[in-house]
Amino acid sequence: MQTILEPAAMQTWARERRARGETIAFVPTMGFLHEGHLSLMRMARDRADHLIVSIFVNPLQFAPGEDLATYPRDEAGDLAKCASVGADVVFFPTPASMYPDGFQTRVKPGPLAGPLCGRSRPTHFDGVVTVVLKLFNLVKPQVAVFGRKDFQQLQVIRRMVRDLDLDVEVLGGPIVREPDGVALSSRNAYLTGAERAQAVCLSQSLGLAEQRVASGEATAAQIIELVRAHVTAHPSAEVDYVELVDSEELTPVVGTLTGPCLLALAVRFGATRLIDNRVLVP
Ligand code: AMP
Predict the structure, then answer these.
(1) pLDDT at residue 45, rounded to an integer
(2) What is the pTM of this model?
(3) CATH number of 231's domain
(4) Among 173, 203, 226, where does a domain finish?
(5) Number of H helices and number of E strands within the chain?
(6) CA distances from 16 to 13, 83, 138 (A)
(7) Is the residue at 88 inside a domain?
């Protein structure tokens, strides 16, 4: 496995492989890797000749006051994990090499970036799609794999690929969870013992909603109230949002659920904001 630091070197590497007719699969990450990331890497690895993983804590997607400076890092551990799943290259650029002096261009997503996480993080998805487009141009993948844990991110990226005619197939991988149901996240490292114990209420509430939908007709308002009530019964939990939306357009579902829709939530535990979601099928 090779580690490449410079964007230009990454692009040269990719150009040479593409010129030989070889295929590239790509998994972008911010590092502090866990089994959720590794599951995407295994999915990607089986779909191309080469697997590239990027590790880049992208300053553009953090707003002032968010956790850019404290985002957890483990370079040696991450490299060992990438090697263990058979990555060919880990692309590890610095912020200065990705955003040199004079950098000023942004990709601007449309209304898909507005609801859910877009409400409390209004510049977040601009930063995400801008870096993803740069990474696609450097890594030149035919296939890129993203997690459904960040469902809105996946949809915003799919739409960018469609709207801008990018020649990349985007795949979504399932959410990987701890045995108690908590979705794996690098940010779980921030939680105190008491917060970690209460964080299980996110996946529990999604399960309650799923049961409610399975047991008969339910309205969006009833489902949202059920989830809110369960989450707010936990003293450390402060709801950022609980929303039921169309899983393609992310527009609100109103009234009785008639087709598959996305139940998504973001909850703060102290300074840590966790997200989770599930597709509900009535
Ligand atoms: P991050 O390092 O948090 O930016 O995540 C990198 C990629 O891993 C994104 O596509 C995430 O959606 C995905 N990911 C993060 N956590 C999980 C998880 N628990 N299960 C599946 N994919 C995940």
Answers:
(1) 98
(2) 0.98
(3) 3.30.1300.10
(4) 173
(5) 9, 9
(6) 5, 22, 12
(7) yes
Report the distance separating Cα 158 and Cα 179, nearest Å.
30
Q: What is the pLDDT of residue 183?
A: 98
Q: If you measure from the C-alpha of residue 146 to the centroid of ligand 1, how many angstroms do you get, rounded to a whole number?
A: 7
Residue type at 91? Answer: F
Q: Is the CB of 202 under 6 A from ligand 1?
A: no
pLDDT for position 133 = 99
In contact, 27 and 173? CB cutoff 8 Å: no
* DSSP code per residue over 79-119: HHHHHHTT-SEEE---HHHHS-TT--------GGGSSTHHH
CATH of the domain at 151: 3.40.50.620
Query: Do 45 and 22 have their domain in common?
Result: yes
Name the strands in the sheet holding 143-147, side by side, starting at the edge strand that comes first in the sequence. 2-4, 89-91, 50-55, 24-29, 143-147, 169-173
Q: How far is the CA of 15 from the centre of ligand 1 (A)?
A: 27
Q: Are residues 38 and 102 in the same domain?
A: yes
Q: Do both 197 and 147 map to the same domain?
A: no
Q: Is 282 a member of any domain? A: no
Q: What is the mean pLDDT of each run of 10 residues along the chain (282 residues)?
A: 98 98 98 98 98 98 96 98 98 98 98 98 98 99 98 98 98 98 97 98 98 95 98 98 97 95 98 97 93
Q: Which residues form the domain of 114?
A: 2-173
Cβ 41 under 6 angstroms from ligand 1: no
| Helix (H) / strand (E) containing 64 | none
- Nearest-atom number in ligand 1 for the CA of 32 is 2
Residues 98 and 192 in one domain: no
- Our count of domains for the chain comes to 2
Tell whether 159 is covered by a domain: yes
Answer whether residue 178 is part of any domain: no
Would you say the CB of residue 170 lies under 6 angstroms from ligand 1?
no
